[in-house]
Design goal:
2 helices; 136 residues; 15% strand; 3-stranded antiparallel β-sheet; elongated; alpha+beta
Amino acid sequence: MSQDKNRYWIPNLDISKKVIMQDIQYYLGPDATVRAYTHQGEDGYLISTPGECLTDEQIDDICRKSKEVWEKQAAARSNKESDRQLKRPLHQPVLVSRGSRSDHSSRPRRHSDERSDGLRRRSGDNRYGRESSRKS
C-alpha cells in the first residue's frame, strides 16, 4: 500500500548536505527522505515525509551540527596545511622572464630598430615599400 507524502522545501543556507542526509530520519521517521532541490532559482532541500516537516528547533539543531562539521573540516585542513613545510614563503616574487639587455645602448629599443629587413620607410612610402600616390 502506497502512502502519499508531504513535500517541503527548505533553503540550504547554513545546512550541510551530509548532516541533513544523516539526520532526516531521526527527526521525521524512517519513511522521510531528503534530496538537493532548486525551488524558484534557489538551492535547497526537498523533504518528503508522511508527517509534518521539520520544526524550527530541529532546523536550528541541523544548522548547529552543520557548523560543527564545517569547523572540524576547516581545522583538519589548516592542520594538514600547517604541517606541510613551504618551499618558499608565500607571495615571494618569482621571475617568469627577463628582458634582454644591450650593453651598447642604454636607451630602450624602438620597434623600427628591431626590423629584420633593415629598410626604413619614408613618410611617403606605403607599408610595402612603394611610394604612395599621395602628393605632399
